[in-house]
Structures are given as structure tokens and as C-alpha cells.
Amino acid sequence: MADFNYGGSEEENAELRKLETELADDPDNFETWEKLVRAAEALEGGINRNSNPQAITTVRNVYDRFLAKFPLLFGYWKKYADLEFSITGTEAADMVYERGVASISSSVDLWTNYCSFKAETSHDPDIIRELFERGASSVGLDFLAHPFWDKYIEFEERVEAPEKIFAILGRVIHIPMHQYARYFERYRQLAQTRPLSELAPAETLSQFRAELEAAAGQIPPGAKAEAEIERDLRLRVDAYHLEIFSKTQTETTKRWTYESEIKRPYFHVTELDEGQLTNWKKYLDFEEAEGSYPRIQFLYERCLVTCAHYDEFWQRYARWMSAQPGKEEEVRNIYQRASCFYVPIANPATRLQYAYFEEMSGRVDVAKDIHDAILATLPNHVETIISLANMCRRHGGLEAAIEVYKNQLDSPQCDLATKAALVAEWARLLWKIKGSAEDARQVFQKNQQYYLDSRPFWNSYLMFELDQPTSAATENVQYERIKQVVNDIRSKSALSPDVVRDLVQIYMVYLLERGTKDAAKEYMTLDREVHGPASVAHTKTGGAVQAPQNSSQAAPVATVVDPTVAAAGAAPQTSPYPYYQQTPVNGGVSA
């Protein structure tokens, strides 16, 4: 990078190199990205068609990378299109606009700019009109869509198509939007000059005519001139239009409650305050209750521009869409957009939901790939590892799930805290799925020496024993097991006194709820030792073994071996990263 020539002066190249280095260290820094875009645009005093090819390549590369990372920035798509128009011409700018509206299809500003550009650079009204119609289907329902509709009407005025202007206004007067009244007034004025056939649907006009004829039933035929009939019919149609206006006014007022609270209708990397998020949730609740599929879908698309980094809205959108019949591909598209472009990988919940969706759809391999992709970035994400193991169990049986845990426990990328949680999950699997509490107990007992400072491990071990079903005949045996776990926590673990106190408190509750007649004595002793003043308290007993200093290493133990080989007496091989003890339960050799 140090020798790379960006096409500018030495000083400009140095600035670009500096910014590229900063982005390599912090690729999510939005301010640095903006500086890089400005620096690239400023090469050679400003990029234009006469700039050297290397400088043009540099600015295109910067824009492409920037908009791939932040595709919802409509203003930068317009700037990029303007730049391409100045460098190459109309076709290149069109391509940028197409990429832009594909990335942020609900942007009124971008569609308005694109249609304006097309109207100025194309001489074919049909092509321009087709683009306006695409824009209308994408953003026409927006509460603030008036700039787009104004531009569409302006174009039809320029080509002198009054019938099309009237048709556009006839669509707009039904849409609840900020400037609905202005459009209705113009529509009402134009209606006076348009033929009756354009003022209402044919069946509505027939109904009105029949009503007028019935009302005039006492008048002899031919007594009323056709002009009078048309005048009366126009008055009836005008009343019909006023009903439309009243309905649109009511719908606009309903939505103004939520629209007036939207402070940032565009995307930005900064977080939204809680009030804004709550308003979007309430607005979505409202539209869903209204029940119009196009309006609900469009509001979700609007919301997910502003709230693109909030996975709760993506998941809500996917759940709503999945409730609509025949929308499997739409649901898949929602999950893909969320997972591949918008929701940070640090929040993998949406990706896991995507995996479950693909599994439900019969694409188990895709679901597995989604899990693997999460773990490639977050190798210590316990929830994802457990989810993968459970999915493998559902489709490959218990051994497939255990294999997932073994692979993770052998992985050098998996830290000790994660492995402690996985051992507990492995034991839980043996207990809940295989139905063998003894096998699960062996996993806990043989591995406790490696996870002395892990609260999740000891908490899981204690809760495992507490959750075992008992009877009057077996309660004493189980009591001894539970008590042994608590003794190990107090004497062997490397947990902090506060954690030990919390775990012992769980045991104390057990004593009161399930203990024998002597339980009160043990309870009071523990209460004194755990909760008493420093002079009498002894939260921990004995010398606690210190936890390993290096969280990625633990004392080596025997690795997993094939049970058939072990049974034949073959010596198990040593692995540098095993964090579970071999036992007859999990395929090891009996002592």
C-alpha cells in the first residue's frame, strides 16, 4: 500500500494511504469512510472526464466499497451517479441509479432524483413514464411522497398529457399523505373539464345515473334535458369525490400521530433513542391492525431504512411476512438482507432465525452453513454452537450432536469459558436426550478439574443434581450428591466468594424445601458461614485450586477415540486441546 499510486499528487496519495490504513484498523468507522470519499473526489482538484484513469479508478473503487458497506445512504448514491454522469455519461449514471434503488427501494429522494435525471436525459416519454411507474410502486405510498408525485405531474405537464395528469391525481387522492389536500383541490378543479367517463369507475357512474333517474321518476320522459342530467350527475360525482377526500383526511390524521414523531426518516450509523424505536413499533402495530398488505409491507421497508441495524425489526418483519400465504421467498429475502447486509454479525440472533427458516424449508445444508458462518466470526458464541448441535441431533441423531461438541472442545479457537458451558450442555444432552443421568454425571465429575473458575459450569452441575427426580426412597442418595457438589464448590473451585455465596444460597433453599428434619441445622450453619460477618464467615473451605492462567489451554487429557478401538485395548492418542475426560460413557477406556 505504501507504494500504491491513487492517481493524485504525492500529498493526495499520502492522505489516501493514511485513511486506508485507518480503515484497515477500524473498518466500521463511518467518519473515516466519509473522509476517504471526500479525499478521492478531490483528486486532481476534483474528478471529471479529463482526470487521469488511475484517479477515476480510485474514486470508483472508494464509492463501490463505501456503498457496499453503507447501501442505505441515498445521498451518496446520487453523488456517485452525478459523478459518473460527469465522467462517462448517461448510461453509467443510469447503472448507478439502478444499483441505488435496488439497495434502498423505499427512498423517495432517490427515486425522485432518478426520475428527474431520466426526464432530463431521455427523449422517449414512454421510457420516462415507465420509470416513474416503477417509482410509484416503490414509494408512492410514503407519507412524504409529494416531491415524487410533483415531479411525475411536472413531467406529464411538460409533454402536455392532461388526461394522464388527471389519472395520476386520481390515484394520489386516495393516499394518506402530508399534502393530500393540495392534490385533491387540483383534482377537483380538473374534474370540471374532464369527461364524465374519467371521473369515476363505470359501475359507479351507472349506479349514480340509476339513482338520479329513480329520484326523477315522477317527471315525464323527455321533460329533463340531457344537459341537466349531466349536471346533476356531475354534482353527484363531486359529492362522491368529497367522500374520498373525507376518508383520506381521516386516514391521514390517524397516521399523523406516528409520522409527527419520526425525527430521523433516513439511515444513519448513530443509534436511535428509545422513543423513536417505540414509535416505530406502535406505527407498525397500527398498520397491521388496519390490515392493508401493501401499506404494511411499505411501512416495514421504511422502518428498516431507519432501523436497519436493529435485528428486532427484521425478525418482526420476517414473522409478519411468514404469516402471509405463499410468501416463502419474500421471507427468505428478508432474512438474507438482514444477515448479509445490515444486522451486525455481533448480533447473530437473526442469522439463527434464518437458519431455522431454511431448516424448516428442507434446506438443512444451508442451515448448517449459516451456523458455520457465524462461528467463523464468533467462534465462542455458545448459543450458536448449541443450536448447531441441536440441529445435527434433529437430523443425524444423538451422536451427531455429541460430535459437534467434541469438535468445538478440541478447537484452539474456543476459549475455556465457552468450553465450560459446552461441557455442561454435553452433559445435559446425555441426560435429557439419551436419558442417562449417570452418563451426564460422569461428564461433570471428570471435567470439573478443568473448569474450576467457571460459574456456568458449576451452576449447571448444581442445577443438574437439584433437578433429578426423587422419591422418598432415593431422596437421601440424591441429597448426598447435591451436598458433594456444594462441598466441591466451596473447597475445590476457584470461584469468587460472591459467586460461591450465590450458589450456596441455591442449596440452602433446597434444604428448606426438600430437606429432612436435620436440614435446619445445616441451613443455619451455612447461613452463618456464608452470610455472617467476617469474623465468623467461611464462604470457601480448604485451599481452592487456582484456575489455569491461560484461558486457551488446560491440562492435557486423553482425546476422543473410537469406542471400538478403545475396547480392543488400543492406547488413546494425546490431543493438545482436549477439555473433556475420557470415560466409558463417552468412548474412553475404563480405569
From TrEMBL:
Q: Do the record's keywords include Repeat?
A: yes
Q: Which organism is it from?
A: Aspergillus fumigatus (strain ATCC MYA-4609 / CBS 101355 / FGSC A1100 / Af293)
Against Pfam families, the record matches this protein to: HAT_PRP39_C, HAT_PRP39_N
Q: Provide a GO CC annotation, any one.
A: U2-type prespliceosome
Q: Which GO terms describe its biological process?
A: mRNA 5'-splice site recognition; siRNA-mediated pericentric heterochromatin formation
Q: Which InterPro entries match?
A: HAT, HAT_PRP39_C, TPR-like_helical_dom_sf
Name by which UniProt lists this protein: mRNA splicing protein (Prp39), putative
Which portions of the sequence form the region Disordered?
571-591
Q: What is its main location?
A: nucleus
Q: Which UniProt keywords apply?
A: mRNA processing, mRNA splicing, Nucleus, Repeat
Matching Gene3D superfamilies = Tetratricopeptide repeat domain (1.25.40.10)
Location relative to the cell: Nucleus
Q: Which family does it belong to?
A: Belongs to the PRP39 family.
Q: Which domain of life is it from?
A: Eukaryota
List the lineage, top down.
Answer: Eukaryota, Fungi, Dikarya, Ascomycota, Pezizomycotina
